[in-house]
UniProtKB/TrEMBL annotation, chain A:
PANTHER family: SLL0788 PROTEIN. Residues 57-203 form the DUF305 domain. Pfam families: DUF305. It comes from Actinoplanes campanulatus. InterPro entries: DUF305_CopM-like, Ferritin-like. Residues 1-20 form the signal peptide. Keywords: Signal. This is Uncharacterized protein (DUF305 family). PROSITE patterns: PROKAR_LIPOPROTEIN.
Automatic annotation (TrEMBL), chain B:
Residues 1-28 form the signal peptide. InterPro entries: CBM5/12, CBM_sf_5/12, Cellulose/chitin-bd_N, GlcNAc_Chitin_IntDeg, Ig_E-set. It comes from Actinoplanes campanulatus. The keyword Oxidoreductase does not apply. GO terms for molecular function: carbohydrate binding; hydrolase activity, hydrolyzing O-glycosyl compounds. This is Chitin-binding protein. The keyword Transcription does not apply.
Amino acid sequence: MKARHVAALVVAAAPFLLGACGTAVDKKEAAPAATTQAQNVKNVSEITAGSTFNDTDVMFLQMLIDNQQQGQQMAQIAAKRAGRPEVVELAKAVQVTQADEIKMMTNWLTEWGKPATLDERTSLHADHGGLPATSEKEIAALKTMKKAQFETAFLNLFLGHQHNAVEFAQLELSKGGNEQAKAFAERVKQSRSDQVQQMLKLLAG
Amino acid sequence: MRRKIAYPLATLGMVASTLAVASSPALAHGYVSSPPSRQALCAAGTVANCGAIQFEPQSVEAPKGSKQCNGGNANFTVLNDESRNWPATTVGKSATFNWVLTARHRTATWVYYVDGAAVATFNDNNAIPSATVSHTVDLSRFSGRKTVLAVWNIGDTVNAFYNCVDVNIGGSGSTTPTTAPTTAAPTTAPTTAPTTAPTKPTATATATATTAPTRTTAPANGTAWAPGVSYRTGDVVSYEGVSYQCRQGHTSIRSWEPGIWTLALWLPL
């Protein structure tokens, strides 16, 4: 009688155990595989980060998602308003790559059971004494700026914005725990630094 | 969309205090992007081997009152090094200086010095800078090559941010375009600088591509992907044994190589 009960429980539990194991194994294998087997990933949202993470990983992703959502708005405006094709093209390339990155980062946070949006906590910023480069006000200014001034304004604003992304990435590289998130931070650091180079040259020429 | 900007401020605050203790690179701030300051030339890869400043041109922060290009900040002495032959930008009788800000500090003043004397002061009365910061400075008293020291005096800290901007005053015309002229100091041939950059080979490639928007390097279909190349939609490259087709025209940079992270730019074939 007793033995049967145990057996029944095991049978009943088995699918759940399998499910749980299956998920865990997938997560662990997906991360390293993602970096080496290009053909197997057909969508950026399939890149997974594994299940171990620390507070810096979460903060980095939340801050960068917010940064890139603003970046999407800025790039969208630039794609419409910039005069030179090189500026339009850079804006469009930033738009498509960062749209994918937002999806990927949001998925990682969802898997970790963390919100992809930032809490509202206004009181602490006084510690730093400076507001970051971009707020609604600066983005709004891009929309109303005269065309003749637009490119210079956009490039200077977006330079500051991408410098901020590099700063977030530096933080993740020094204090993050998740290997995939750190690998991503290295890519952010490189791509944004190179975008800075492109933009400074576009300003100079 | 709900505004959620407050949290980064909070986290930046936390980050700033932790970093301050560890004396790591200070977060944020600002620099003159055009006409390019010395730190902007380093960040752009136009002047090579600048050291740490290349990655944080916004960080030339030091106590107020210095007249040095680095403001006395020992981390960035390269900015004081006149032997680097900093390329000078040709400007007219006045020049418009444009700033990149990575943190919008309350601002006391923006001051521009030539030959040690203040030639222009813009008083912000402790306000937070507006979306874009640019100042037009009358330089008609001067001619030839000069180094303008541009200083951002912060309102709520003891510090300032320092920039040296090398200009060649007295180019034709009485007004200066807001974008720096491309004909900057041809005699100093700044384009030769990046080729000597052993630490960052891609800087050279990027530089070449961005200064040559009329694509001189039309890649044959199927050639190996490289940074600093202007790719157009439809171009086919190979990378690590896989062929990819360009889905969005762009000038290639590090970490935009074809692969799983950049499917928005490159479609595997």
